[in-house]
Amino acid sequence: MTISIGDKIPSATFKEKTVDGPVEVTTDALFSGKRVVIFGVPGAFTPTCSLNHLPGYLENRDAILARGVDDIAVVAVNDIHVMGAWATASGGMDKIHFLSDWDAAFTKALGLDIDLSAGTLGVRSKRYSMLVDDGVVKTVNIEESPGQATVSSAATMLEQI
């Protein structure tokens, strides 16, 4: 079943590479008592993710936070080292969380996993964005195609906050 508005975010533990080294980030720590924008991508360094989806959130970070959002996070089914390299290469380190869902446990619990084996990517995340308030989904935007970043874009999220 796919996550919907009004659902509680499932429990999970991510890995995040920070300037101080690797840390574990639980969904409880990320979402409890906070308004958080989270978006999922099929993969770090992939064209749509790196050229369109992520840049929109980095460029609109301050505008999103100014609307009462406490934090922004991107999730991908990539290992912590790839996510850390993407955070550094994109200039996003310490601006938003780059969360590794290395085994797709969170992505599968959301019902947003997609098999992209035909493109040699294996199991990945569908492209989506959500506004989560104290662990409860307030908005959810899921792309029909992993190559698009329109309904899950930062511009769309800004309209919804």
UniProtKB/TrEMBL annotation:
Catalytic reaction(s) noted: a hydroperoxide + 2 glutathione = an alcohol + glutathione disulfide + H2O
EC number: 1.11.1.27
Pfam families: Redoxin
Molecular function via GO: thioredoxin peroxidase activity
InterPro entries for the chain: PRX5-like, Redoxin, Thioredoxin-like_sf, Thioredoxin_domain
GO cellular component term, pick one: cytoplasm
Residue ranges crossing the lipid bilayer per the database entry: none
Domain of life: Bacteria
Keywords annotated in UniProt: Antioxidant, Oxidoreductase, Peroxidase, Redox-active center
SUPFAM superfamilies from the UniProt entry: Thioredoxin-like (SSF52833)
Catalytic residue positions: 49 (cysteine sulfenic acid (-soh) intermediate)
GO biological process, one term: hydrogen peroxide catabolic process
Keyword Plastid recorded: no
PROSITE patterns, sorted: THIOREDOXIN_2
Thioredoxin domain mapped to chain residues: 3-161
Catalytic EC class: oxidoreductase
Presence of the UniProt keyword Endoplasmic reticulum in the record: no
Function: Thiol-specific peroxidase that catalyzes the reduction of hydrogen peroxide and organic hydroperoxides to water and alcohols, respectively. Plays a role in cell protection against oxidative stress by detoxifying peroxides.
Recorded family membership: Belongs to the peroxiredoxin family. Prx5 subfamily.
PANTHER family in alphabetical order: PEROXIREDOXIN, PEROXIREDOXIN-5, MITOCHONDRIAL
Protein name: Glutathione-dependent peroxiredoxin
Organism: Rhizobium quercicola
